[in-house]
Design brief:
Number of strands: 11
Shape: globular
Structural class: alpha+beta
CATH topology of the largest domain: Alpha-Beta Plaits
Order of helices and strands: EHHHHEEHEEHEEHEEHEE
Number of helices: 8
Number of domains: 3
Largest sheet: 5 strands, mixed
CATH architecture of the largest domain: 2-Layer Sandwich
Strand order of the largest sheet: 1-10-3-2-4
CATH superfamily of the largest domain: YebC, transcriptional regulation domain
Strand content: 15-25%
Helix content: 40-55%
Length: 241
């Protein structure tokens, strides 16, 4: 799932990914599996699992599917094993791209990711080559609905510990530090807010606008990355003109 600093871009990718809901659920299921294996099946004692559950709910993953994934992981033998890998590189016109993956075969995944970058005129770089252009933040997206007042949402978010609240035409974007994300999300959730998105993301410090031709190429690169079963999240600083 692609990540950007503007929900307008996230929403664009999310809408087109709805047809691939099963693949999205499979990827989140893998995150649930890894979180359980690392910290146990009780979300109250496993903050990472609690965050992934929130992400799953924001993606409209059914509760029984979430429960089955947790049960499977908690009762699994040591058969499945995933490594969390991060790849960095450049897309068309030097767009910075970060790819987060979970893989049971690092050589296969690295070769696949490199091939996708090469196919669309990009190149895979070394660790750290673009990550310095991003800040890791908690991002919570709340859809604007009747009865949701801007001042009320902003006050609730800031009182919960959020760093900032950005009001857009169709949504509120709440930003937090990594350390405060879980607390802010839980406070808002307990207050009754529902989220379109709730997860830690790599937020670009500056954006790059591409012309129509290069935008089309960048879009194809992202689509192919998202189709890869090992890819969990994609972050970039491409802005739709």
């Amino acid at each position: 799932m692609a990540g950007h600093s503007k929900w307008a871009n996230i929403k664009h990718k999310k809408e087109r990914s709805d047809a691939k809901r099963g693949k999205i659920f499979t990827k989140i299921g893998r995150e649930l599996y890894v979180a359980v294996r690392q910290g146990g099946p009780d979300p109250e004692g496993n903050s990472k699992l609690k965050d992934v559950i929130a992400k799953a709910k924001a993606a409209n993953m059914p509760n029984d599917t979430i429960a089955r994934s947790i049960k499977k992981a908690s009762g699994a033998a040591s058969g499945e094993n995933y490594d969390e890998m991060i790849y960095e590189g450049y897309g068309p016109s030097g767009v910075a791209v970060i790819v987060e993956s979970m893989t049971d075969n690092k050589n296969r995944t690295a070769a696949d990711i490199r091939h996708i970058f090469d196919k669309f005129g990009g190149n895979l770089g070394t660790s750290g080559c673009v990550s310095y252009m991003f800040d890791r933040k908690g991002i919570i997206i709340i859809e604007k609905k009747d009865g949701l007042d801007e001042d009320t949402v902003m006050m609730a978010a800031l009182e919960a510990g959020a760093d900032d609240v950005v009001t857009e035409e169709e949504y509120f974007e709440i930003l937090t530090t990594v350390s405060d994300f879980s607390h802010v999300r839980e406070e808002l959730e307990n207050t009754g807010y529902e989220f379109l998105e709730a997860q830690l993301q790599m937020v670009p410090q500056t954006m790059v606008k591409l012309d129509e031709k290069h935008s089309s190429t960048m879009e194809k690169l992202i689509d192919l990355l998202e189709d890869n079963d090992d890819v969990q999240n994609i972050y970039h600083n491409w802005e739709t003109a």
